[in-house]
C-alpha cells in the first residue's frame, strides 16, 4: 500500500512474503494474529474513546458481534456497521461504503471480508478517508461465536485453514 502497512494474519502468507523477498535488506514479514489484535484494540480503545466501525460479514453476524463485544467491553464505542453484498466489490461499492463510514466518523474501520477482498477494500478506502483500516479476516465470526478460534500453535504451523475447513 502507498500510505499504509499490511501485516499478514496467516502463516502461509508470511512464508510467501519471506520467500519472495529473500535477500532484500529490511524486507520481511511477521504474523500479526488478527483476532487478539482486534480484541486488544477494542479493550484499550475504551479508555481512549476510540470509535469503531465494522465492515463485512452478514447483518446477523454483525448483530451477534456487537452483543458479544458490548458484554465484554461495555464502554466500547461502536459507531456503525455495514454488510456489503456478497459479490466482487468495485470502486462504486467502496464509495457507497465510504459514505456510510464518513457519516459515523470512526477512528478504526475493521474489515472482515476475507482475503483478498478486504485488503483491496482497505487499500482503496484508506486513500480516501483518514482512519485506520484493519483487516481482521474471521475475527468477526470468532467474536460473534459463529466459529471456534484455532489455537496459536496450529496457526504457527500453518494449519489454521485446516481447522476452519473442518468446522465449516
Question: In words, what does this structure look like?
Answer:
The longest helix is centred in the first third of the chain and has 15 residues, at 34-48. Strands 2-1-3-4 form a four-stranded parallel β-sheet, sandwiched between helices. The protein contains eight helices and four strands. The relative contact order is 0.19. The protein starts with 10 loop residues before the first helix and ends with a helix. It has 168 residues and is an alpha/beta fold.
Structural class designation: alpha/beta
Q: What is the tally of helical segments?
A: 8
- What's the mean pLDDT score? 85
Strand content: 5-15%
Strand order of the largest sheet: 2-1-3-4
Approximate shape: globular
Which characteristics define this entry?
alpha/beta, 12% strand
List strands and helices in order, with pairings.
Blueprint: H1 11-20, H2 34-48, E1 51-56, H3 59-72, E2 77-82, H4 91-104, E3 108-112, H5 117-126, E4 132-135, H6 139-144, H7 152-156, H8 160-167
Parallel strand pairs: 1-2, 1-3, 3-4
Summarize the structure.
The chain contains 8 helices and 4 strands, in the order ααβαβαβαβααα.
Amino acid at each position: 500500500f502507498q500510505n499504509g502497512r499490511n501485516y499478514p494474519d496467516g502463516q502461509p502468507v508470511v512464508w510467501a512474503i519471506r520467500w519472495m523477498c529473500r535477500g532484500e535488506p529490511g524486507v520481511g514479514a511477521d504474523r500479526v494474529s488478527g483476532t487478539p489484535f482486534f480484541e486488544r484494540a477494542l479493550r484499550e480503545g475504551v479508555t481512549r474513546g476510540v470509535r469503531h466501525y465494522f465492515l463485512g460479514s452478514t447483518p446477523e453476524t454483525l448483530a451477534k458481534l456487537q452483543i458479544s463485544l458490548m458484554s465484554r467491553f461495555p464502554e466500547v464505542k461502536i459507531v456503525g456497521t455495514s454488510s456489503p453484498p456478497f459479490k466482487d466489490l468495485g470502486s462504486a461499492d467502496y464509495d457507497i461504503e465510504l459514505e456510510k463510514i464518513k457519516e459515523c466518523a470512526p477512528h478504526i474501520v475493521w474489515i472482515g471480508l476475507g482475503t483478498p477482498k478486504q485488503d483491496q477494500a482497505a487499500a482503496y478506502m484508506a486513500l480516501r478517508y483518514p482512519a485506520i483500516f484493519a483487516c481482521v479476516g474471521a475475527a468477526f465470526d470468532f467474536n460473534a461465536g459463529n466459529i471456534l478460534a484455532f489455537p496459536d500453535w496450529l496457526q504457527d504451523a500453518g494449519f489454521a485453514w485446516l481447522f476452519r475447513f473442518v468446522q465449516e
